[in-house]
Amino acid sequence: MGRTNGGGSPTRIRDDAGNVLPDALPHAPVPTPEAPKHLPPGVRKAWAEIAGPMAAAGLLDRADAPALEAAARCVDKWRVAEALMDKEGVVTDAYGGRAHPAFSVAVKAQAEYRAWCARLGLTPVDRVSLGLASLRGQSLAQDIGARIGASPRKTGAT
């Protein structure tokens, strides 16, 4: 029986390499994709604002398109609602002195967007919870170690 992992067990490889889950998943990284033509202009703008940084960070995959569209739609709803409130006021006489109906739309769109951010790993906290930040941290530590030498704490030197 040939060994395909250099003799280490999966646990040993994980321990040596850190969290390798993102590399273990089948994925198809893509350059910044154009927004689908069927999307309205505001959603297309939000798509570009979200997809660009995701693609640059290597966090975007072809399978993310529906989630990306949902996140972009949330941003657009939020912006439209905020623009309406900017024009008409958050609390106006037109609504009997109550909050503008767009207020609840904005609040819901923000909450939905935060949920999509978590799923897509768009904030530092989300990347930590997905195990992506540890990979970057390990790469940074390895890069620093290669440039200035290993940490005395890791080698036992004082």
Report low-confidence residues grouped into runs of 5 or more.
17-27, 134-138
Mean of residue pLDDT? 75
- Using DSSP, what is the number of strands? 0
Strand content: under 5%
Determine the number of helices (DSSP H or I, runs of at least 4 residues): 8
Order of helices and strands: HHHHHHHH
Distance between the termini: 44 Å
Radius of gyration: 22 Å
Structural class of the helix and strand makeup? mainly alpha
**Apparent shape:** elongated
User: Main β-sheet, in a few words?
Assistant: none
Bin the helical content. 55-70%
Structure overview:
The chain has 158 residues and is mainly α. The protein has a domain at 39-143. Helices cover 63% and strands 0% of the residues. The protein contains eight helices and no strands. α3 packs across α4 and α4 (65-88) runs antiparallel to α5. The longest helix is centred in the middle third of the chain and has 24 residues, at 65-88. The protein is elongated, with a radius of gyration of 22 Å. The relative contact order is 0.10.
